[in-house]
């Protein structure tokens, strides 16, 4: 799909669609609100393609009007205008020169639009008369549900050096009511150093019990070992992980711990407290960090006992990163990797209020995952050195007959 599709003015379309709906204009039919949508998008994409072609064409070339053709779907047809160039070297990709039948290609374009985050309410309702297709938008996008289910159940690799686990929360509708839905994300790094979303799971709320089910599913799909799991401070989470993967090392997110601490620190003390706390988590060694934690207790323990108690209670799982070289420390001491991934998801889902169903949410997240992961074409920085170090720290637990780059 052409990148120019992403420049389609959805906001303008939405405003016009709402205006026409209020005036009584139908969604479907030859003069329906949705009728010009696919035509507009295809022609905008074709314009983008020819502009790109003209920039790269070594011979002097320019636009030379348009040519019209009837493009057919399964049950109907519409007129599509394709731009031409003077030298006749332009070969469009989205709808090829001699292509007059779209078939499933039209459905794929609608699905792609949905995956770009177009408001579901804008183009839902019915497509049964849009170019003669007897279907609703949800009916079209539902075609990916079997693909989603297959992706959720796909076999996984036996060993993942790093795995981040976190949940992102949305609103969905259930029995006419808006409810909170947690989307659980498992993001891993395989032994070749590439990021991979291992799974997306849906539940009403985040909790250690559901995470236990998620981890059981990973095991059933072939995961035998996780070296280091990076998580937030959800109560019971480490126990849930170690129930399924008893040898996995837990690294609690330092940033989450800091944020939770600041909730109990008076605003006038926060700057000074953070300066003292930084000496703990940025220490060169675990021994030095523990010494600075004692000093933190001596300075702030009486005024903020709950904060110091939390650091001491979680210290074993907070301090694991100190044993590793700096490159590994940077990877595991926070859950920034998965939080960055969730920020990208929100760019796609932010136009939504409450999703009509949990499946509607799942479809969009899946499509967004596929789009985001297209950019994961390189292993993590210095991965060759990192995997060699991990092989020493976790002797015998890695499969070393793999092609490692970086």
TrEMBL record:
Question: One Pfam family of this protein, by short name?
Answer: Transposase_mut
Coiled coil stretches, renumbered: none
Identify the keywords attached in UniProt to this record, alphabetized: DNA recombination, DNA-binding, Transposable element, Transposition
Q: Does the keyword tRNA processing apply?
A: no
In which domain of life is the source organism classified? Bacteria
Question: InterPro entries in the record, alphabetically?
Answer: Transposase_mutator (IPR001207)
As for what it does, the entry says: Required for the transposition of the insertion element.
Family from the record: Belongs to the transposase mutator family.
* Protein known as: Mutator family transposase
